[in-house]
Amino acid sequence: MSSMYAYEALPVAEWFRRNRELAGFHNPTRALYQTIRELTENSLDATETYGILPNIYLRINVEDEQKGWVSVYAEDNGIGIPGNEIPNVFGRVFYSSKYRIKQHRGVFGLGLKMVVLYSQSTTNKPVFVRSATLKSDKIYEFQIMIDTNSNSPIILDRREYPNKYRWHGTAVKVYLEGNWLAAKKRIEDYLKRTAIIAPYAEIVFKGPDLELWLKRRTTKLPPAPKEGLPHPKSVDVDTIKQMLQESRGMTLLEFLMENFDAVGEGTAKTFLEWAGFNPNAKATALTPEELVRLVEKMKQFEGWRRPRSDWLSPVGPELLEIGAKAILGAEAVFAVTRKPESYGGHPFIVEAAVAWGGQIPPADKPLLLRYANKIPLLYDEGADVARKVVDEFNWQNYKVKFPAPLAVIIHVCSTKIPYASAGKEAVAEVPEIEKEMRLALRDAAKKLRLYLSRKEKEMELLNKYISLAKYVDEISHNLNIITKLDREALARSLHKLIENKIGLTVEDLVKHTLSLSAQQEEASAQEVAQ
């Protein structure tokens, strides 16, 4: 009997086009937000990683209100893309280097391609790209679409012209179906939160009814992540299979030394003997069963060196404090960066900051700002382990009484972020990461407690000063009658006496009074605005 069904392989680009919600392109609102996010993150990776202070310009225009079409333009001053590579970078899904490990913002490694696929599936318009590499004497311009059947670029237009002003960077323009009004708040939040984690970037945004100029607050850049080979505990059977296909007749010993980080001859031999493999056997001769056993043993072996942390690029307490103070308008910020740890062979670092007072509105629980590899996570907060850690944290132990003007920043950087879902907007409950989040929050909250205790003590002294100082006029007046000494001189001596007694000067009093009244004015202005 002949089959009723026709089966065919689905080309990779076509599969992603049909399953675009996996990369965050669920609907016109989310797609517009995701497009801004992908283009911004590519710009940041093309600048800061190479020691360039980022200048990013973003623009959204409504092109056709009836159809719901918008255009998104993004330009940066990054390292640019070589002219011959532009069609592949924008027009071929999964076009990248293999088996090299380092921290990077890109969640799927195909964000740009998803933007192009979504754009052409909703407006049938090509992506416009202009780019020039550092010191290039030419600028290249392309208009590209993706052939989803062959997963290859369709070049509709290609130009090159002299680079007179030695410009370098990349400019991209796409047309897509997007809901600006519904996405506006998310985009604004995303860009402001990006400015917190990257205070060394200058970001200018122009939308139909929103303009932002997020100024550079520092010229200090975080250390760039180094690139390396995977850790033996971090690979799965499929990855090993692909590596073996390229092993060019190596022995198992050579295969381990060549393909994995910090695996020398001694470590490789010790492992293979412990796992029951012949070090001189050909790597490609492994049976499927042996392959599975090899991977299992690699995960169990305790003799590997710890995963390297120079693959990671934490922001650091100084930059976190600068960013949070500038964007949140906090009175005080306390940040910590924990020591590197690892889960399943993947190195990670947790950073936390607590921001207090100033323009942060008092609320019944802390405002939480989540980041993974310097990417702000705005969706699925309830599913994130960071929300659980912040909610379970005993704030009373740290002198915080709710409602309180408190914001918490938690940043995880890793070569592999364990996301809770396909949307990749929440970090999963991995015990090692959860523990580090608790410890990081505790370390930052200790600094906050110290600050609040000092403020409390200062307020007590201030109140004491005021309650004693209110009798100075009366006492100096009576003493003047009795002693005939100068009344003003007596008042000055009495004030001095109070200052010596409580250890607080008149200058301190004036300074504190001014800062307190400024905070009160700010709080009432916010209430009026709300």
TrEMBL record:
Domain Histidine kinase/HSP90-like ATPase: 30-129
Matches recorded under Gene3D superfamilies: 1.10.8.50, 3.30.230.10, Histidine kinase-like ATPase, C-terminal domain
Residues noted as binding ATP in the record, renumbered to the chain: 42, 76, 97-98, 106-113, 424
Keyword presence, DNA damage: no
UniProt signal peptide: none
Domain DNA topoisomerase VI subunit B transducer positions: 307-461
Pfam families recorded: HATPase_c, Topo-VIb_trans
Domain of life: Archaea
Molecular function GO terms recorded: ATP binding; DNA binding; DNA topoisomerase type II (double strand cut, ATP-hydrolyzing) activity
PANTHER family xref list: DNA TOPOISOMERASE 6 SUBUNIT B (PTHR48444:SF1)
Protein family: Belongs to the TOP6B family.
Function: Relaxes both positive and negative superturns and exhibits a strong decatenase activity.
Protein name, UniProt field: Type 2 DNA topoisomerase 6 subunit B
Source organism (scientific name): Pyrobaculum neutrophilum (strain DSM 2338 / JCM 9278 / NBRC 100436 / V24Sta) (Thermoproteus neutrophilus)
Phylogenetic classification of the source organism: Archaea, Thermoproteota, Thermoprotei, Thermoproteales, Thermoproteaceae
Gene: top6B
